[in-house]
């Protein structure tokens, strides 16, 4: 039986017609989807390029233009002379001060042409690019500057002037809280376009509102380069491509398509140039070549038509030859297809659920990974980074995702091989956890590096986890703590040495003074004794420096105007500084500090002496400057004991030989010096450090070999105004006939003091032991009018003796002497009821004066005695 007998021709034709309709419908749907796909691809290409253009413009604005606003504000804030010279209308001074900064900016950006200072009344004060032109009224031609004058806030915008289009950065300037004018920087728009063109391959140019562009003088730009399109003017740069644009082109519309010389372009119009009010001045035009995408779509249309026709013919031929067999197989296939569709639907649902769970887990892992504050990265066995968290990109200043594929030693230390002691190599070798501290010079930071192995599903080594914890500040604080402890230990030792040394000096100085009183006219002997006394005075000054370093001297702290003190000290320095060294100073700050004037003067003298001694052979510049600074919480991380607030900063700088890092680390250690034998004690900077610390300040130093040294001393400011010290008139020292009890274990000092006091008429009984003196006093408490006692004695100290004496005779005046620093015992002595405290070595006239004053005060304060 033939196939035509089973199926009538009408049925066969009907089936073929149905198949033909189905095939054509599917072909049409496929063709439509293909066309839509290509159209979407073209739109995606256009969108991608538009996003890339916007990203480039945003990057250039953020990293090339906006930073100038911050730099201009920083320039005004850090150079105090700019506001002052503008306030004083000192054009020459302002020009000389700003010229190096202006030249530096031009070297950095050749298109930064304009630097212009404006006065509040709208007049030009100084054009750095044209200093001969000034005083012209700009109120009607520079509206952006007038807005800054009115609002007194920074502004950046585009502006079209007589010399073309510029990007303006304008910063208000204040002097002593008063608005004194503004300074602006101008960058040519042409430079911005060059920066964009370097990152965008498509042709681009600029357009401007014609009514704005008309103010540009013809000498500033070639007139033949510009064409008018409606209300806009386009810069053609004499390029044939732009000259071929149709004159009816509307630059206000975006994404226009046109064909020029058989090339299809999409025109991106970006109105990015806005003035100070946000109004559009113009923008850029980018011509994107989309010829390849359009040709691909056309080629797809032709191929699709050919394929669809061939498929339809083949389907009709096959259907015609095997209609009956096809019907049976279609029934079977339909049933099988139904089961397959049901199974695939279930699998798809299960896979979607699994994918959702995996996506959720991945996002949670990535959030956790990026939330870790330390640098965490996953590396392969070659120390190549596979993935790094957000902290790694932040610390290493890398764009997100750019660290993958780089070696760890490449991004951390800019090296071509692994660091020495790299824990990652050890982990790769033995699959164990390893740690090491590594200083990365490229970053200027020290990290605690920990590496751990990551096994695969078989338990074998796969990757390593690399964790880098920044411990730079922690180690700096530990080093400061160790240095502080070392200084305290040496200070304690210095105090003990000073005590014994002061006893010796008392004897030397005292007997010298006695000898001077006895030699009459023997001039040579007098001269020699004066030399001995002067040597004792120098030794006394050295002890004072030791005690100042160990912070055992009493501070006469009061509110002082540091400017006057620095000026007086500079006058003293001028006579000792050789003519080969230039002294520069700026010490006009009005602030007050709470300080001991003598110790502050010692800081200046020590720092300035070190500075000019570093330039004795070569000559140079010695700088002494004062200014007020405000220290915030963020700036005191390295100095935790310092409180934020206003400080006076004393700067002492030189242009000498400088110091290396090893020397700089030791300069504040006592007795460390780089000078030749006999030219320095090594105490100068240690004393400075001790004084600054005692005044609740801190000191920093910057120095490099061959680049000089700069010290900064920060001292807290106070609001209290200085009080002038009352003038002192000379006093006549009187003696007396009172009976004095002297307790001193040093025999030479005991004999010296006894002899001196006897020359003033006093009756003196002395003891070398505090315990013996106490037993004697208990038996004869009413025989004595005053007790003079040393502090450090065997069996019973001066304080202990005084406390016992007070129990027997509360009214007797007691004077305590000590070779230790004043701060060690002065407070204890006051609490123990001691009337006066004297610091060794003793000046004999001072001793006699203090004894007389103490006796007189005691008589005035003592209640009248009753009958005997």
Helix percent band: 40-55%
Low-pLDDT regions: 676-682, 863-868
Structural category is alpha+beta
| Cα end-to-end separation | 168 Å
Q: In this structure, how is the largest beta sheet organized?
A: 7 strands, mixed
Query: What is the approximate shape?
Result: elongated
Rounded mean pLDDT score:
79
* CATH architecture grouping of the largest domain: 2-Layer Sandwich
Gyration radius, rounded: 45 Å
The portion of residues forming beta strands comes to 15-25%
Number of domains: 5
What assembly state would you assign to the polypeptide chains in this entry?
Answer: single chain
- The CATH homologous superfamily of the largest domain is named PAS domain
Number of E-state strands: 28
The CATH C-level class name of the largest domain: Alpha Beta
Kindly report the CATH topology of the largest domain.
Beta-Lactamase
How many DSSP helices? 24
3D architecture notes:
The structure is a single chain. The chain has 24 helices and 28 strands. The N and C termini lie far apart (168 Å). It is an alpha+beta fold and 868 residues long. Residues 676-682 and 863-868 have low confidence and may be disordered. It is elongated, with a radius of gyration of 45 Å. The longest helix has 70 residues, at 9-78. The chain has 5 domains: 54-292, 2-Layer Sandwich (Beta-Lactamase), CATH 3.30.450; 372-470, PAS domain (Beta-Lactamase), CATH 3.30.450; 476-549; 558-718, Heat Shock Protein 90 (2-Layer Sandwich), CATH 3.30.565; 739-861, Response regulator (Rossmann fold, 3-Layer(aba) Sandwich). Helices cover 47% and strands 22% of the residues. Helix 17 runs antiparallel to helix 19. Strands 17, 18, 19, 20, 21, 22 and 23 form a 7-stranded mixed β-sheet that branches. Strands 7-8-6-11-10-9 form a 6-stranded antiparallel β-sheet.
């Amino acid at each position: 039986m033939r196939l035509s007998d089973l199926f009538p021709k009408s049925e066969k034709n009907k089936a073929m017609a149905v198949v033909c309709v189905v095939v054509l419908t599917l072909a049409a749907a496929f063709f439509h989807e293909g066309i839509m796909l290509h159209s979407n691809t073209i739109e995606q290409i256009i969108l991608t390029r538009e996003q890339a253009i916007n990203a480039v413009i945003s990057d250039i604005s953020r990293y090339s233009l906006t930073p100038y606003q911050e730099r201009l504000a920083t320039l005004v804030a850090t150079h105090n002379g700019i506001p002052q010279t503008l306030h004083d209308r000192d054009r020459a001074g302002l020009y000389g001060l700003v010229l190096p900064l202006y030249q530096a900016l031009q070297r950095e950006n050749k298109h930064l042409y304009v630097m212009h200072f404006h006065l509040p009344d709208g007049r030009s004060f100084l054009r750095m690019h044209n200093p001969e032109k000034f005083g012209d009224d700009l109120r009607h031609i520079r509206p952006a500057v007038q807005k800054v004058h009115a609002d007194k806030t920074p502004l950046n915008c585009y502006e079209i002037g007589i010399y073309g289009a510029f990007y303006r950065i304008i910063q208000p300037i204040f002097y002593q809280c008063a608005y004194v004018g503004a300074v602006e920087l101008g960058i040519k728009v042409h430079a911005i376009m060059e920066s964009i063109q370097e990152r965008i391959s498509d042709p681009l140019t600029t357009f401007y509102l014609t009514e704005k562009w008309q103010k540009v003088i013809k000498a500033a730009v070639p007139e033949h380069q510009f064409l008018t399109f409606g209300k806009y003017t386009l810069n053609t740069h004499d390029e044939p491509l732009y000259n071929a644009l149709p004159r009816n082109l509307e630059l206000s519309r975006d994404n226009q398509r046109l064909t020029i010389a058989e090339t299809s372009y999409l025109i991106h119009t970006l109105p990015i140039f806005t003035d100070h009010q946000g109004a559009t001045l113009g923008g850029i035009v980018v011509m994107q070549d989309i010829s390849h995408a359009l040709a691909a779509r056309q080629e797809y249309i032709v191929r699709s038509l050919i394929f669809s026709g061939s498929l339809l013919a083949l389907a009709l031929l096959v259907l015609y030859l095997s209609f009956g067999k096809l019907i049976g197989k279609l029934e079977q296939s339909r049933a099988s297809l139904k089961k397959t569709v049901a199974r695939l639907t279930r699998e798809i649902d299960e896979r979607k659920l699994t994918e959702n769970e995996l996506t959720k887990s991945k996002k949670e892992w990535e959030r956790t990974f990026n939330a870790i504050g330390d640098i965490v990265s996953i590396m392969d066995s070659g120390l190549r980074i596979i993935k790094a968290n957000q902290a790694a990109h932040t610390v290493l200043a890398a764009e997100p995702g750019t660290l993958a594929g780089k070696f760890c030693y490449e991004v951390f230390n800019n090296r071509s091989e692994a660091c020495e002691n790299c824990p990652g190599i050890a982990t790769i070798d033995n699959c164990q956890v390893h740690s090491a501290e590594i200083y990365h010079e490229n970053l200027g930071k020290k990290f605690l590096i920990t590496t751990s192995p990551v096994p695969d599903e078989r338990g074998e080594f796969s990757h390593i986890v690399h964790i880098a914890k920044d411990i730079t500040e922690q180690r700096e604080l530990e080093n400061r703590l160790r240095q502080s402890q070392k200084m305290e230990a040496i200070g304690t030792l210095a105090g003990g040495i000073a005590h014994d040394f002061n006893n010796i000096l008392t004897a030397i100085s005292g007997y010298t003074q006695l000898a001077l009183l006895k030699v009459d006219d023997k001039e040579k002997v007098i001269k020699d004794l004066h030399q001995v006394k002067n040597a004792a005075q120098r030794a006394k000054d050295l002890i004072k420096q030791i005690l100042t370093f160990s912070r055992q001297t009493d501070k006469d702290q009061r509110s002082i105007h540091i400017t006057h003190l620095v000026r007086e000290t500079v006058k003293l320095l001028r006579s000792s500084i050789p003519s080969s060294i230039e002294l520069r100073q700026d010490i006009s700050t009005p602030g007050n500090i709470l300080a001991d004037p003598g110790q502050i003067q010692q800081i200046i003298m020590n720092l300035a002496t070190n500075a000019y001694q570093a330039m004795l052979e070569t000559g140079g510049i010695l700088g002494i400057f004062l200014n007020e600074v405000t220290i915030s919480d963020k700036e005191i991380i390295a100095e935790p004991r310092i409180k934020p607030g206003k400080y006076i900063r004393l700067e002492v700088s030189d242009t000498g030989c400088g110091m290396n890092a090893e020397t700089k680390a030791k300069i504040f250690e006592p007795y460390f010096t780089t000078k030749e034998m006999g030219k320095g004690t090594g105490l100068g900077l240690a004393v400075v450090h001790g004084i600054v610390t005692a005044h609740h300040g801190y000191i920093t130093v910057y120095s490099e070999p061959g680049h000089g040294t700069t010290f900064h001393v920060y001292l807290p400011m106070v609001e209290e105004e200085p009080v002038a010290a009352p003038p002192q008139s000379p006093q006549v020292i009187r003696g007396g006939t009172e009976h004095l009890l002297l307790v001193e274990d040093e025999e030479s000092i005991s004999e010296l003091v006894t002899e001196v006091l006897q020359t003033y008429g006093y009756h003196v009984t002395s003891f070398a032991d505090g315990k013996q003196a106490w037993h004697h006093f208990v038996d004869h408490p009413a025989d004595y009018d005053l007790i003079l006692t040393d502090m450090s004695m065997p069996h019973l100290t001066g304080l202990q003796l005084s406390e016992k004496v007070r129990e027997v005779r509360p009214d007797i005046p007691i004077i305590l002497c000590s070779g230790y620093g004043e701060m060690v015992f002065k407070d204890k002595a006051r609490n123990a009821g001691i009337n006066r405290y004297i610091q060794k070595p003793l000046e004999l006239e001072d001793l006699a004066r203090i004894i007389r004053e103490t006796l007189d005060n005691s008589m005035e304060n003592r209640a009248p005695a009753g009958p005997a």
